[in-house]
Design goal:
70% of the residues lie in helices and 0% in strands. By secondary structure, the protein is mainly α. Helix 2 (15-36) crosses helix 3 (40-57), helix 2 crosses helix 4 (67-86) and helix 3 (40-57) crosses helix 4. The radius of gyration is 19 Å and the shape is elongated.
């Protein structure tokens, strides 16, 4: 069954289409929710909330853009909301000019795989992780991030800059550790 048919069936309240939608998208959306939550149970709760909201608002989907993109946005919002209910995320309000200097990106960065990059991202403070992931991985704009996280756009920009610089520091430190281990 094509996605357009599944979506139309869901709009009509067809249970088989709703099940097909869940079967098609649940695995990928669960991975997405896991990125934004602190554990698997919370991610599953966020996924359930995502589908509840998707079915509740599916009539608002007009076919502009991909349905999967629309669903992913609901999943991200659900996961972040779920996480915020369990743990407060703190954002530092700083002047934008404090952070706009980027460090030099180490060569090893280009050799990182997706899993290694995600491990590095999880070493960031949660506020920096959220903004970096929303901006770089998910493709949100600063105004959207600001709305989702209830922060200012300048705080989002500053957090992105800090996240990039912190990642570069982490990579450089790991690079030094690897070089020293090889020398021993």
């Amino acid at each position: 069954m094509k996605i357009e048919d599944i979506v139309q069936g869901c709009k009509e309240g067809n249970r088989k289409c709703q099940d097909a939608l869940v079967q098609k998208f649940a695995p990928g959306l669960l991975s997405l929710c896991l990125r934004y939550t602190s554990d698997k149970e919370l991610a599953r709760d966020a996924l359930q909330e995502c589908f509840i909201n998707a079915f509740r608002f599916i009539n608002q989907y007009r076919g502009n853009g991909s349905f999967e993109g629309w669903l992913r946005r609901i999943a991200v919002t659900s996961a972040i909301s779920m996480q915020k209910n369990f743990r407060k995320v703190h954002f530092d309000e700083v002047a934008e000019e404090d952070c706009w200097q980027y460090s030099e990106i180490p060569d090893v960065y280009s050799q990182l795989g997706k899993e290694e990059l995600m491990n590095l991202l999880h070493k960031l403070p949660e506020s920096l992780f959220l903004v970096f992931n929303l901006y770089v991985v998910e493709g949100y704009h600063h105004n959207e991030i600001a709305e989702i996280l209830q922060i200012s756009e300048s705080t989002s920009r500053s957090a992105l800059c800090k996240a990039r610089n912190r990642l570069i520091e982490i990579i450089k430190n790991q690079e030094k550790t690897i070089i020293m281990a090889k020398a021993s």
